[in-house]
Design a protein that fits this description.
Protein name: Queuine tRNA-ribosyltransferase
Helix content: 40-55%
Shape: globular
Bound molecules: 7-deaza-7-aminomethyl-guanine
Pfam family, one: TGT
Distance between the termini: 42 Å
Enzyme class: transferase
CATH architecture: Alpha-Beta Barrel
Structural class: alpha/beta
CATH topology: TIM Barrel
EC number: 2.4.2.29
Strand content: 15-25%
Catalytic activity: 7-aminomethyl-7-carbaguanine + guanosine(34) in tRNA = 7-aminomethyl-7-carbaguanosine(34) in tRNA + guanine
Largest sheet: 5 strands, parallel
């Protein structure tokens, strides 16, 4: 993997760059649509490529391991072939899903024993087997196995957990060294900073992670219920320490405003279920604020879904039509809303990139943050 920085904003820490892997380029800052179970919910791969055009999408080790199961993905020749996606893929390690989805999980030094949310069967994730699973799934970027602490989190728990995440990182790295790539392309490994909402722990973790000398670095444990200001404070201290010449990935963030504020602090990569999940509930993100399309006020509004939107659904269909689809509980409503929201998120990060390159990112960001902070 090769990362090139093209420009850094003079008034903030925002960066525009480019990552190149064996599956092509990723222009940063980037938002990665979430395709948890080898599907970006509701969007066909061709539509995703032609309308939304992301350079990279995300998959989840936890889900794919449980269903369809790793061996099926191996038989298919890896996740790219299995799902018909020839661009970049990143897989999360399960270090978050194990805590958020499975019941009865038991965290020990060795690893995590958890109960499947699908059939109640028991499984164990260790740093070693999670690296093996990710080798076989075959994403271009694979993540360290970590513990994502909840919010709020007691200082002593956060500290102990962070040290365990660091020991797990060492185990991930030594196991990867012994495990060759499964397919004929390379994989890059990103470790994850933890440390809850404590600046001293975040600094300590960022130093440990930076020392691992990985090709890119991630920040976990944020956007778990803490106030946005606390999230930004943590991103700021961590970005001061993480190397400048490697991409920085903020996991599971966030709203359009969170994304712009974190770009300003030096983050290059994001993922979040928000554009897709909220779309399925009728919430649309736009440059002028959010819309609840189920609201009666849109019943006879025949204006386009989003006049400024980049996807065909934005101008092809009206708000009244989309509201009707939601009222009638038609699949198509969720599909259209998902295409709109993903199109908006990708437009937003591309605009951010343009403004970083043009040198007026800071002013543009402040204007957008104000403009988007509304309910229409
Ligand atoms: N760890 C991992 N994945 C994640 C997170 C984390 O802390 C988060 C936190 N917002 C989202 N996804 N492995």
């Amino acid at each position: 993997m090769k990362f090139t920085l093209h420009h850094t904003d003079p008034k903030s820490k925002a960066r525009a760059g480019e990552v190149i892997t064996d599956h092509g380029k990723i222009e940063t800052p980037i938002f990665m649509p979430v395709g948890t179970v080898a599907s970006v919910k509701g969007v066909h791969q061709r539509e995703l490529k032609e309308e939304i055009d992301p350079d990279i999408i995300l998959g989840n080790t936890y889900h794919l391991y449980l269903r369809p199961q790793t061996k099926i993905i191996e038989q298919a020749g890896g996740l790219h072939k299995f799902m018909g996606w020839d661009r970049n893929i990143l897989t999360d390690s399960g270090g978050y899903q194990v805590y958020s989805l499975s019941a009865n999980r038991k965290i020990k030094e060795e690893g995590v024993k958890f109960k499947s949310h699908i059939d109640g069967s028991y499984h164990v994730f260790t740093p070693e087997n999670v690296m093996e699973i990710q080798r076989v799934i075959g994403a271009d970027i694979i993540m360290a196995f970590d513990e994502c602490t909840p919010y709020p989190c007691d200082y002593n728990y956060a500290k102990r957990s962070m040290h365990m995440t660091h020991r797990w990182l060492d185990r991930c790295i030594s196991h990867l060294e012994k495990t060759p790539y499964t397919y004929d392309y390379s994989q890059s490994f990103f470790p994850i900073v933890q440390g809850s909402t404590y600046k001293d722990l975040r600094r300590q973790s960022a130093e440990y992670i930076a020392n691992a000398g990985a090709e890119g670095n991630a920040i976990g444990g944020l956007s778990v219920g803490e106030p946005a200001e606390e999230m930004y404070a943590m991103t700021e201290v961590v970005c001061e320490i993480l190397p400048e010449d490697k991409p920085r990935y903020l996991m599971g963030v966030g709203t359009p405003i969170n994304i712009l504020e974190n770009i300003a602090l030096g983050i290059d990569m994001f993922d979040c279920v928000m554009p897709t999940r909220n779309a399925r509930n009728g919430m649309l993100f736009t440059a002028h604020g959010t819309i609840n399309i189920k609201n009666k006020k849109w019943e006879d509004d025949f204006s386009p879904i989003d006049e400024m939107g980049i996807t065909f659904v934005d101008t092809e269909y009206s708000k009244a039509y989309l509201r009707h689809l939601f009222a009638a509980n038609e699949y198509l409503g969720k599909q259209i809303a998902t295409i709109h929201n993903l199109g908006f998120y990708l437009w937003l990060v591309r605009e951010a990139r343009k403004h970083i390159l043009a040198g007026d990112f800071y002013e543009w960001k402040n204007m957008m943050v104000k403009q988007m902070d509304k309910r229409l």
